[in-house]
Write a structure and sequence with these properties.
Helix content is about 40%, strand content about 25%. The protein is built from 8 helices and 13 strands. It has an 11-stranded mixed β-sheet, with helices on one face. It has a two-stranded antiparallel ribbon with strand order 3-4. A hairpin with a 2-residue loop joins strand 3 (about 125-130) and strand 4 (about 130-135). Helix 1 packs parallel to helix 3 and helix 1 (about 1-35) packs antiparallel against helix 4. The radius of gyration is 22 Å and the shape is globular.
């Protein structure tokens, strides 16, 4: 759990920067829509609370508008200008000087399936509405389809891009604490808990490996919509499956989803029912350890 504690400052910065960029983008987009269309008022009134639905609705509305080429160029110029300005401001926060350590960025070593490696500092782009808004993730997100790194983390340096499908695994660390290395693996993921409709990403998600047993692996995922979740994966499973939320206690509702998730393994029902409310907070992978123990005894 110490590794998760070390990631908390980066997760907080991610949340703040994502929110700032998202709000700036929506404000700029809505200003343009106000200038070019009378339908703006109707769109504004129907805004839902969920920011992701808002963003999708704005993009859909913009695509359906019958606008001229001149108006489209004006919109595109505005979005590129805003994106470039935010990119420069944010990149300057972590500029690297030769011979100095990079603070607040993950030093990353990517192992590709073809046997080659790539090293640099994680610098993923975030695209909104088809426009490249440069936003540097501090930690890999489950919505990423590529990993972008900069070898020296310099502002004008060209980033190297690697598709998730081509990555076998990835190692990250802080230059300030190089001995503490985190391992990441891209896996297909179902973010839904047991007994619920599947919530499967269309591409593999980059997951942080926190537990490696004989038969079971335990991961943590960082997703803007689903938050921080713990997942497990076995060799015969097509998807890594979510089973807990990071930091939660064992409520009656979560106990039920755990029973729905592990019902096919004899012995797990009694073990889950015996757990106290605080038992999973300090050791969320105690459930996977018990599952690993039962599977090992069955094979013997």
């Amino acid at each position: 759990m110490m590794l998760i504690t070390n990631l908390k400052p980066l997760l907080f910065i991610d949340f703040i920067m994502y929110t700032v960029l998202h709000v700036c983008y929506l404000v700029a987009k809505l200003v343009v829509l106000f200038i070019t269309s009378k339908k703006f008022l109707q769109l504004f009134i129907t805004f839902p609370a969920n920011s992701f639905v808002v963003f999708k609705k704005v993009c859909t509305f913009a695509m359906e508008m019958n606008i001229s080429k001149e108006e489209m160029m004006r919109k595109k110029f505005l979005m590129i200008f805003v994106g470039g300005l935010l990119a420069c401001c944010y990149s300057a926060l972590a500029q690297r000087s030769d011979g100095k350590l990079v603070k607040g960025r993950l030093h990353t070593l990517i192992y590709q399936k073809n046997g080659t490696t790539a090293e640099g500092y994680l610098q993923n782009n975030f695209s909104m509405g088809g426009y490249p808004i440069s936003y540097s993730y501090h930690i890999p997100s489950a919505i990423d389809t590529v990993m972008r790194i900069k070898p020296d983390n310099k502002m004008m340096e060209k980033s190297l891009k690697y598709r998730i499908q081509d990555i076998d695994s990835m190692s990250t660390w802080s230059d300030e604490q190089p001995k503490i290395k985190l391992t990441w693996e891209p896996k297909p993921v179902d973010f839904a808990f047991g007994g619920r409709e599947p919530a499967i990403e269309s591409h593999p998600a980059m997951l942080l490996l926190l537990y490696k047993g004989t038969h079971v692996k335990g991961y943590m995922s960082h997703h803007p919509a689903y938050g921080l979740k713990f997942l497990f994966l076995m060799s015969d499973m097509p998807f890594a499956k979510a089973f807990l939320i990071v930091g939660e206690k064992l409520s009656n509702r979560r106990r039920k989803t755990l029973l729905d998730t592990f019902y096919m393994y004899p012995g797990m029902e009694d073990y889950i029912n015996s757990l106290s409310k605080d038992s999973i907070k300090d050791d969320p992978f105690c459930i996977l350890k018990k599952l690993d123990e039962l599977l090992s005894s069955d094979k013997q």
